[in-house]
Amino acid sequence: MSKLAIITGADGGMGTEITRAVAQAGYHVIMLCYALFKGEERKNRLILETGNKEIEVRQVDLSSMASVNNLADDLLGRGKHIDLLMNNAGTMSPRLMQTEDGLERTVAVNYVAPYLFTLKLLPLMGKGTRIVNMISCTYSSGKITPEFLTRGKKGSFWRIPVYSNSKLALWLFTRELSERLKEDGIMVNAADPGIVSTNIIRMDMWFDPLTDMLFRPCIRTPKQGAATAIHLLLSEEVEGVTGQIFASCKQKKVKDVFMNHPQAKQLWADTKNYLEGLRLDEPIV
To answer: Which residue numbers are catalytic?
Structure first.
């Protein structure tokens, strides 16, 4: 049987490139997509391009923890060992948007969903499994405030700092998880794609159309942005490496404050408590 790879945001620009590479490597790929129709369209195209018919699409709304939880339960029920987990999906909400769980939407999709999804699926992982989380170079300007997990309920909103905060949280999760799983032989790393021309860069202010026209040609294509994540998922060069950030397919030197962040363990505990408070094993009305 083929090895299994799961990729979130697989219908996006970088997600499609990652799916293509993993499918070409012979994996059975589960594409997790927000829009089922778009995912099926990409799947059919990738089957033709790669010759790999073991590609399937599942729908999930990463802003809903019930949706994430239900999908994870379904995959657990199938019982197939997971060799690769790529938490690729990301968003940057242009305005304050509160989810059904009381989270700010960017924080929900970029951080809380991968936290919940990854931890739920750990029973299907083992020695040699690779987990890769897509962070951003903006993580270094992020801050974890006491309001981080309740930010969707009040206050002013500015999309870029919120995005940076969510990517810092995802990196702290990556780092903490890598330490917890080191003895199990499960590798957990973060990919920094650089600034990439994807739908995440949405222009919403009056001058944005001109900025968009001048800015996009100067940044990375989705294929270029996906290269580091693909390297971490498939390359033999990174075998045994864990708890690191890679950019341009090379390990980055990360400041000690981010390698041993004082808030990492507290954020883990706060997120766990928050999710337990949602009572995800019961219907959320």
So the answer is: 163
